[in-house]
Amino acid sequence: MSAHTIVIGNEKGGSGKSTTAMHLVSGLLRLGYKVASVDLDTRQGSLTRYLENRRRNAETQDRALPLPEHHTTEGVPDKGWLDDVMTDLASRFDVIIIDTPGADSALGRQGHSYADTLLTPMNDSLIDLDVLAHVDVETQKISRPSQYAEMVFQQKIARAQRNAGSTDWVVMRNRLSSLDARNKRLVGNLLNELSGRVGFRIVEGLGERVIFRELFLKGVTMMDLRDGDSEISLSLSHVAARQEVRNLIAAINLPEVA
């Protein structure tokens, strides 16, 4: 069976792509999936740095932290590089997770064309909604899909032409707040309208928590923490964060691991 490829994509920085990617990597490894990861962000490389921190933590602290087989661009590769990597990984792993750049690039577009599942993390605001659609300021209605949505449509076609496969596009509403209820409802209504027009489904993603930034330097995720862990004291908020990751993994509808 060929690996299920999850692409984390959004052309706006700061949406939580790398945090999402790392928590999926850790969560799926702990569920018994064989996982490979690919970082296509040639400038930031946040997922790569996260995994480097994780490997260092495991070695220096003699700690059991499962790691994926990881691939990086190491500069600007030729167009055939990603094709070769994906061909190699497809038969050896259950899941491949691709983290894409927070800006338009040829490599990022190519990465999208491999998605069985495309996860688009989006902060819950009208500013971040702009990556999916242009909203008329006066009417607060969607005027047209964004360039990113058009790109996703084109890469779905490329995917279908390659192997007759299809892409399940999932938009994650990250950092949902209970404070600005009116804005939250407006964003929700616009997303529901857009989902039918461009073809994605909506799930709740990860909340805004300081713990995510704190764990980055250690290369650790919420899925690695356990009650009684000497490194950090688990709170109800942390337990809720772990459940958010579990809910996200369930929403992807992966085949069960052997």
Précis, in short:
With 258 residues, the protein is an alpha/beta fold.
Describe the structure.
- The chain is of the alpha/beta class.
- The chain has a single domain, classed as Rossmann fold (3-Layer(aba) Sandwich).
- Helices cover 43% and strands 17% of the residues.
- The chain is built from nine helices and nine strands.
- A seven-stranded parallel β-sheet has the order 3-2-4-1-5-8-9, with helices on both faces.
- Helix 1 crosses helix 2 (46-60) and helix 1 (17-30) crosses helix 9.
- The longest helix is centred in the last third of the chain and has 18 residues, at 181-198.
- The chain is globular and about 60 Å long.
- The mean pLDDT is 86.
CATH domain class name: Alpha Beta
What is the mean pLDDT? 86
Shape: globular
Determine Rg (CA atoms, Å). Answer: 18 Å
User: In which order are the strands of the major sheet placed?
Assistant: 3-2-4-1-5-8-9
